[in-house]
Design goal:
Distance between the termini: 45 Å
Helix content: 25-40%
């Protein structure tokens, strides 16, 4: 019985690792594309996991929602924090904070649907 429980725990851990790598790759690709589109440097070519929690998608299916932080630069001499949120392996939100104050009525949050 203990062997069966250990095997189930090992399989669950393997699935979580594989699913997390897929979501991380999607977050890196989204951050890189957003930085290229805005003529910014995507620093360190990576994202850092900030949080993970269960959430439901539009169909009511329970998935893992992960928030990632990354850094970019507009001049090459500074580091500005951005974030990406995934639901499952799909990017649902990308946030790039502007280095200067935004114009009135302009949002820096880009919803991805």
């Amino acid at each position: 019985m203990i062997e069966l429980f250990a095997l189930a725990a090992l399989l669950a851990t393997g699935w979580l690792w594989w699913d997390s790598m897929q979501a991380r790759e999607a977050a890196v690709a989204a951050a890189r594309a957003a930085c290229e589109a805005e003529d910014l440097q995507f620093l360190d070519d990576t994202v850092d996991l900030a949080s993970i929690k269960p959430a439901r998608n539009a169909d009511g299916r329970l998935l893992l929602q992960r928030a990632y932080d990354f850094e970019f630069s507009d001049t090459g001499d500074n580091r500005i924090r951005g974030s990406v949120v995934t639901l499952g392996r799909r990017v649902i939100l990308l946030n790039i904070l502007p280095p200067r104050a935004p114009s009135p009525g302009v949002s820096n949050v880009i919803p991805l649907h």
